[in-house]
Design a protein that fits this description.
Elements: H1 9-21, H2 27-47, H3 57-70, E1 74-75, E2 87-91, E3 94-96, E4 110-119, E5 122-131, H4 137-155, H5 163-177, E6 181-182, E7 188-190, E8 197-201, E9 218-221, E10 224-226, E11 232-234, E12 241-243, E13 249-251, E14 254-258, E15 263-265
Antiparallel strand pairs: 1-4, 2-4, 3-12, 4-5, 6-10, 7-8, 9-14, 10-13, 11-12, 14-15
Helix pairs in contact: 2-3, 4-5
The chain binds 2-amino-4-trifluoromethylsulfanyl-butyric acid and cobalt (II) ion (CO) (2 copies).
Amino acid sequence: MTGSELPSPDVFEAARRSAVAVTIHDADSFEGMRRAGRLVAEVLDLLVPEVKPGVTTAYLDKLAYEYTCDHGGIPACLGYRGYRHTLCTSVNHVVCHGIPNDKPLREGEIVNIDHTVIVDGWYGDSSRMYLVGDVKLKARRLVDVTYESMLRGIAAVKPGATTGDIGHAIQSYAEGEERCAVVRDFCGHGLGRVFHALPNIVHYGKPGYGIALKPGMFFTIEPMINLGSYGVKVLNDGWTAVTRDRSLSAQFEHSVGVTEEGVEIFTRSPKGWDKPPYL
Ligand code: MF3
Ligand code: CO
Ligand code: CO
């Protein structure tokens, strides 16, 4: 930008709004988020060797429930807005909020498992993709593109950057370079002592727009990327979101905090299993 150009007025407006609406957390809060993030990551690690042909998502849900409760956590989704399960399990063309059920997973499927825990009042929210047996190249490519999309979004996080910078980093890669589609109807969110708060982290956008990031802000980055077009619809169960064109969809999610230097990821896998293939 040259000296005579000013940022878009939205930047000023967003900065004013964020000053009142987005919680700035202290060092103890980072400690709380590390503990919550670690537990949710342990659960996602625990599920790695369990996801295989023949296993049901209801069984995975039971494993996650038991491990979470046995390790000082509360399953945050259970009872949230009437949701009755620990995990969301989104298979193939399911975009998000898939409900665990008794249908066995089949060779070649891809599944997102999304888990949120509360530890000492702090929320940790993360999801990963899992490959069921041998998976075709087309689906594996989507999973790779989606993981890289999340990483590029995270890499855009630093004090002074904006939520629009995050969205632009994701969209320019996933759509611009990789010809996939970024889902518009669901977004990342602030979290901390609450599950869903400001700022909204939309996974598309323009550099410099949105809310200015400050050290101590906590939020998720959780892009949903479709192989076809971005349209989604919610099924009659009130939860399951699917691609309108029934194309495959993938998602990864980390909970992060803005630091003086840039960003801290709270939900990294202790086993290094952040991205498949895991084993
Ligand atoms: N974990 C999801 C998110 O990323 C929210 C799921 S809400 C539920 O924000 F009720 F569907 F579990
Ligand atoms: Co989330
Ligand atoms: Co989640």
